[in-house]
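Blinded run. Sample ID left blank on purpose so nobody reads anything into the name before looking at the predicted structure. Input follows.
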Amino acid sequence: DNPFKYAAKAASLSATVMMCWCFVLSTRCRFLEDWFGGLDKVYQMHKRLGKRAFGLIALHPVFLAMDRLPDVPAFLRMLWFLPWQGDRLLLGHNIGVAAFVGLACLMIPTLWVRIPYHRWKRSHEWFGLFLAVAALHVFVVDRDVRAYPALGVWFWGILATAAAGYVYIRFLYRFLGPRYAYRVDCVERQGDVLEVTFAPLGRPMSFRPSQFVYLVVERHGITPEPHPYSIACGFNLESRFKLGIKMVGDHTRSLVSLAPGDPVTVYGPYGRFSDRFLAAERDCVFIGAGIGITPFLGMWHVAVHSGDPVSGPQPGPDDRLAHPEMRPGWLAPVVSLFYVVSTPDQASFDNDIRNEVILSRFRGFSAFESQGHHYELYVSSRQGRIDAAHIDRSVRGGVGDKNIFLCGPTAMVEALRSQFLGMGVTKDRIVVEDFNLL
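Blinded prediction complete.
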């Protein structure tokens, strides 16, 4: 007798599925990373589902109130809290309104307002409360889910899965996640970037080029929430690693107080950005802007030192299995690296990049570039915005048959991707790492 309820129910159930998937996607499970091709892809899907779920769930109360039209005041009253007179449906209605208001308070700053990372992170911790209130709304109303047993099993099953995901990442991940105890070994500051090297305290962490970790610092004055940072070096048998941290927020600025010996916990490693490079099927072009250069430093290390004679401890069978670059006879693709900065003083890792070449078997850039490799520090304040045409001219043989890797500000990445596609580079050969979730 009320056809608007079909749309209302479809909106609420579809939004519930999407929100539950958001909880599952936030768990950092390895099988999800493998399925999507990288944790950044998982989080991008998480963001897209969250936006769509919020839009759909907003339609639920609108369609439930549509039968009040053309009485506009009655329609608007149905969108807000109603006086409760002991009626179970009215109680369920009010709980539903509370759930939507709470969701709006969480989603609007999460998706459309620029807020510091630590506040964005804390706002996500309240999504569990929304899930609980939404489940209570369904339980109190108790209509369709009770009337159709198959729907009830499906609905409560997916809510239980989402709740389990929330409990795991919020309370259990710190104990059950892939965690390693490390200590700060060295801290260097280059402008607004900290280069921090870590050494293992116990079980070492094996990582592949371009992967990232979540860092938790155990020092007074530094907030303990986990923050993701790309590993800015190649793998070594001592399992030491370096992070490049740009000081842009309260938390990252507080890391300047780190000192050698400080204990930290790292979770990970995560990321699949280097998989296409390690497959060595095509030569590669790397374009990193600002702190977006850090994922390329490990791959650069591998490319520069591929074929170097190995001195010191030899990698074991497990290392050779996990790291293609350590297998006998493996040769890296020819690479061209573009490090894009606004001004020269922002090129924090320029010396690291150049030293890799000097310390390799090439002993300098002359022999290195004679093999087809290329490195360029691109200063946009002098040269203007970097574009695909410049990169194509600078790379030996052009970019037409190469894999192109992009990491940096979203505007630059999207502009270059569009330009490369316009030049005929196929979509499958453009590899992007994007953690812009705010």
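Unblinding after everyone has recorded impressions. The two ends are 43 Å apart (CA to CA).
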